[in-house]
Amino acid sequence: METNRRITRSGVLLRVLILAAFTVTITAQKPAPEVFTLTVPNGPILTRLNASVTLPCELSPIFNVEPLEVRWYRSENSNSPALLYKDHKIQETPVDPRYRGRVSLTGGLERGNVSLTLERVTLEDRGEYVCHVSNERWYEKANVSMNVTGSAPVLSVASGGGGQVNVTCSSEGWSPQPKLTWRNKEETEIKNEQVLFTSGAWKEAFIVTLVLSLVLLSALSTVVCILLKHRDQMKLEQNKSETKLLFKGTENSQEKRPVKEGINLEDWHQVKAFKENITMDENTAHSDIRVTQEGKTAQYIKEKETIKSSIQRHPHVLANQSFGSEQHYWEVKVRDETVDKAVGDCGQLSWYVGVARDNAKRTSTVPVTPLHGFWTLFYEEGKGFHVNTDPPTSVHVREDLSMVGVFLDCENQSLSFYNVDTESHICTLCNVVTSHKFLPVFSPGQHPITILNEN
Question: Could you say which of 2.170.190.11, 2.60.40.1120, 2.60.40.10, 3.40.190.10 is the CATH number of the domain covering 37-148?
Fold first, then answer.
């Protein structure tokens, strides 16, 4: 009797397994519809130079597209596609060599998504693309347009002689070209025949007293304003004697600091009055960075035992202090000729200083850019100076710069850098906006850098 029961139970279980397998087989072999349509955006896709962009394209009804052929090509070149998928894999030929290694299907073919992702966008990539999907009996295609916007604007100021100031605003790679307008402080448009618009860049505007109001369409980037100022020693001495500061204080305090309404970012003597006592937090240092002198100096060390998993973090250290309001200034010694000669064989002289959001990710896979919570001035021997926009923006600074001043104005959302050696303004990053606090960041590269707290 017991044996019969076991046989009966085994038979029931076997029938259930067979039924389940049959059901799975039927589901897996469900044929794709003979007729389908493609869904793409109504308007053009906007992207920036050197960025990654996805051109959306989905099938309706949704089904597994893996057995089908997917072809992405420029409308004028169907025989040499940017990407060809057939026989369950992406084909090496025939494809346009300009796209080799830069394209992929990232939407999920099993979900009916055949979207194309394009890496390292160039100006040549702009235009109309065709998404073509076909099976043995039916095909459908749809057009997706892509526009490429230009680089972030760079403002520079330099003496033009004869009491004039040359102001240059340049930006490259716009398509279509934007409209350029200069206005004075009364919001009146300035029309100057010497303002040129050449090769996607704005050049040579001459204004004696300038207050700029510049608005550019740029939904996907941090707007960076660069103000460059070159002063000779005579003008520096004159400014020292004529500068008037506005102060604030209390009855119980002798501390005097300029109020923000009176700050002239190009006057190093004004911003220096906001100097803070800054120290480095050794707990935030990369394992190859040693913090010494009571948190004043950071130095890169090349010891084998320090090469750990943390090598995947960016090689910098944060400050103990954080700021979310008012104005703050600190100075960093980035170069010492005596030390440079002593450690000259360690590698190239390089460093960066600036600020980071307190919630910024510090792994090396996250770029040190404003988009990811970093605003910095970089120097690399042989390549010079730049601010960390995406792509980087070069700034003109003398190679022998040894001390950098950093001024964070939380109220006006700007970060400025100064050449302490010449007591002059280097550049200002505008639109430094965040709901979090900022921490000073220091990267010594192969040479030590030191915070200077003495006045």
Answer: 2.60.40.10
